Amino acid sequence: MSLEHRLEEVLQPVLGAVAVENLQRLTGGASRTTWAFEAVAGERRALILRTGAPDDIHAGMELEAQVQRRAAAAGAPVPHIVTASDSPAALGNPYLICDAIPGDTIVRRIFRGLDDAGRARLLRQCAEALAAVHRATVDGVGLTTPDDLAGWRARLDEIGDTTATFEWTFRRLADERPDPSPMVLVHGDFRMGNLIVDQSGLAAVLDWELTHIGERYEDLAWFCIRAWRFGAPEMLGAGGLGSVETFLRTYEEAAGVDVDRSVFRWWLTVATLRWGVICRHQAERHLSGETPSVELAAIGRRVSETEWDLLDLLSGKGPR
């Protein structure tokens, strides 16, 4: 049976009898594959299908759907979930189906379409969206509460390779770890590239597979590392849209909380180290022969970039 026919059977209990048309694969990453299609039942409805094999790193599809519904109830802009299942029986892998949201996710194209006012508006919307995510209630959902620093230590140890800068950073972070702050829903990968942007600004927050319970600082810091500026100058340290300080002040106003700048800096160092370990891990996939790829090799070369940023952060410098 074709994927179209299997999709029609999956959608029938929630949408009634539909015909699936114009199915096209959009991406096929390491963890999730994304398809676009139309469900036709008199009117056409543009939908998105995401599939992915279960693993011990990413949230299951049903859990991801529950979290997005909770975030939507708190005011975060997320696609409407149509249906989701962790069972591979229907489509060969667990799946999530949601409404398609018009807009763009390609960051350099988004940047080209923004003037100063547009950047400021989008930065404010990102801060407000993140505040809404962190307000969401997650009682009974079943999310984990991982130790971010220990997790990336383990990922680096799996490779059996490290750098002096990484080791120094791990030690400094362990020695200077701040007292924990209240736990909230964490998106886990809130950044430019995982946001849909249209003419009015932020349209939707995507890619919730790394969601978990943690400290709000984790999301705030991840948004502000160099990689997600996509070449924008350091003065636009918050996602390439505006200053980090403006982003944090706007978040404070939207969330009704104070953000401790020294704690944020600790988490920014963790986030930068996280990206460095990811770069090294991607390089290892190429170097080991597991996945020969020029792209993975190029990502590996960014390890030195993260080392520079870590040294800046540890010496008291960093984005503004």
UniProtKB/TrEMBL annotation:
Keywords: Transferase. GO terms for molecular function: transferase activity. CDD domains: ACAD10_11_N-like (cd05154). It comes from the Bacteria. InterPro entries: ACAD10_11_N (IPR041726), AGP_Transferase (IPR051678), Aminoglycoside_PTrfase (IPR002575), Kinase-like_dom_sf (IPR011009). Residues 23-241 form the Aminoglycoside phosphotransferase domain. The keyword S-adenosyl-L-methionine does not apply. Transmembrane segments: none annotated. PANTHER family: AMINOGLYCOSIDE PHOSPHOTRANSFERASE-RELATED-RELATED (PTHR21310), BLR2944 PROTEIN (PTHR21310:SF57). This is Phosphotransferase enzyme family protein. The lineage of its organism: Bacteria, Bacillati, Actinomycetota, Actinomycetes, Mycobacteriales.
